[in-house]
Amino acid sequence: MASLTSEQLEHFKNKLVEKKQHIESQLQIFAKKNENIKNDYETVFEQIGDGAEENADEVMTYEDNLAIEHELEDNLTEIEEALGRIADGTYGICPDCKEPINIDRLEAMPEATLCIKCEK
Ligand SMILES: [Zn+2]
Hints:
Layout: H1 6-30, E1 31-33, E2 41-43, H2 52-88, H3 103-108, H4 116-119
Antiparallel strand pairs: 1-2
Helix pairs in contact: 1-2
The structure holds zinc ion.
Residues 94, 96-97, 99, 114-115, 117-118 line the site of zinc ion (ZN).
């Protein structure tokens, strides 16, 4: 049940690769790539100063960055999985109901795994 043409697949592949690069560059702003684990980044704990207030700021920034880091990492994994589905020919098909995923949904979120009905 191939619902997407090879041109469409190419289009979504490009979108996914672009998105992946964008996320990786965002992660690199505050996190260090873990070379041993694929798609794992370590949020860098930034030292602003030694005062109590500065220390509190450091912890807050670190915690914020950590939350963003995990979100970006999850997104990165989803993108990689979507690229894998393009490679093995299952991209664009919802694994739950086996129906094609709406093209507008893929356009907005090319890494989507499930169709809108199953996502709910
Ligand atoms: Zn579905």
